[in-house]
Amino acid sequence: MGCSSDVRGFRWDFDYLGSKKLRNVEVVIGSFSVSVKFALDGCGPLWLSVVYGPNSPLLRKDFWVELLDIFGLSFLLWCVGGDFNVIRRSSEKLGGSSPTSSMKDFDGFIRECELFDPPLWSAPFTWSNMQESPMCKILDRFLYSNEWEHSFPQNLQEVLPRRISDYWPIVLDTNPFKWGLTPFRFENMWLQHPIFKECFRSRWRGFHGTGGSTSKLLVQRALRKGELEELILREEIHWRQKAKVKWVKEGDCNSEFFHKVAKGKRNRKFIKVLENERGLVLNNSESITEEILLYFEKLYSSPTGESWRVEGLYWSPISEESASRLDSSFIEEEISKAIFQLDRDKAPGPGGFTIVVFQDCWDVIKEDLVRLFAEFHRSGIINQNTNASFIVLLPKKSMTKKISDFRPISLITSLYKIIAKVLSGCLRRVLHEIIHSTQDTFVQKRQILDAVLIANEIMDEKRHSGKEGVVFKIDFEKANDHVSWDFLDHVLERKGFSPRWRKWMRGCLSTVSFAVLVNGNAKGWVKASRGLRQGDPLSHYLFTLVADVLSRMLLRAEERNSLEGFRVGRNSTKINLDKSNIYGINLEHNHLSRLAELLDCKASGWPIPYLGLPLGGNPKACGFWDPMIKRISRD
């Protein structure tokens, strides 16, 4: 069923695709809008408004008053869209724009009504003046209330191809693909249920099974999961009321705000279309899922016949005392310390249970966990189910088209996270012995800020010297994902780690498998044979060990006055020239451009982002800190 209206040349079309039917349709016509009130089977009444905003600043005040009146009529279930004829932020105009009173009024209207402003898909702007040097803006958009979001939780705003007009059509899709079942996830608020702790205690201690501690924990967690689902279903209404009261009391009335933040993040992560390597646009769940799984199968597969060895370096091996200390048995205190250091609110992996369960029920499960660590100390084996992961895809930018535009983050099981946290704590205590002083990150008593300060001092000195020079900022492509496990074991061996510790590290890596969360639903299982997981507490420290080899290779090359002859293998870490930049120091722009063309990278100006801070430029200048301020405001 469809309905359409015209407001000063702007056409509104809406269709409800599905089994629900439109009922009780009413139309309200204003000076700048046409609103439709209707009901649907299962939800309603709903309000849809289409607008055409005036160009006159005087009339805009009447425009906002009219929309506020409609919002008051809608009983919060409201969606408004159309040509607002004003941008909300400076970034919504090509080349930027200074803040204006109209922009502030628009932003104030959105904030007063507490409306969602969903991101645009497929194009960065909705209007262009069609000139050779075009002016482009976001003048059209959909906005909707939190209550509308509850009724249509997967709204997607898309820009359609333009034909003749200077406007691109936009559509709000409220009926996206069905992606399958969402994995079980423990909600931390369930711990407040009056019978949860006692139920957990009695069932956990009453379980009698066979097998080791790992198997027992897995079976027990499965039992808990089923009982929790039954418990929540049985007392759903009571629990919702109690949870709401608690959130309002302890959340300082901010639960609505955090809910909106979570919804906004979910919408940004939603994948509706994807472009494959051949440039074809995929727009259905099957083809999108297949493309994503193929990508990760290739990414985490180690090339056959690959051999990674580096000879002739000074490795700075670990002391015998430290190596022996690393092999010591795990004790209850260090396990407990690791558990309570972990973030209790982090998203869970395939097991579904968050760290808060282990923290709040520590007195119940500690004996089993201590036995599990003793078993791991002896065997070095981690059960494949314990080492399974979800990959969640986080967009690196607002316009995500290809799978490479997403950053894969691993959601690992809480049980593995505890094991890795204990091991990473042990490793962290000895890194300062074996990592070169040029490496500042993740090493005790060293600060990453030192690298920024040193780099700034070098830039300053070179600039004042008047001598020409270039800075080549290199980005390594998928550095964590391309780490060879064989090479990592080689590094651990040359660094003097014991066979037992190396066996533990192989146990943490060799049973890794991934399911990819595609729009919240787990798809496929990918068996990894290389790479370090982002989200694994061990990954930072293991990558630091690998990166130390590169540091020592560069230092040796410097000693020989040469950077040649240190290629490790044909499949070693690749330079990502798309993200690499060259910067000139007292250098003519023409010369810099020729160098950039020769290196097939970008020529850029100062200041530059380095380790999250601006490098070069004048820190006293007004605009020097703008990118950092903008980033903090966005986050």
From TrEMBL:
Xref: Gene3D superfamilies: Endonuclease/exonuclease/phosphatase
One matching Pfam family: RVT_1
Residue ranges constituting the Reverse transcriptase domain according to the UniProt record: 395-556
CDD domains in alphabetical order: RT_nLTR_like
Domain of life: Eukaryota
Name by which UniProt lists this protein: Transposon TX1 uncharacterized 149 kDa protein
Lineage per the UniProt record: Eukaryota, Viridiplantae, Streptophyta, Embryophyta, Tracheophyta
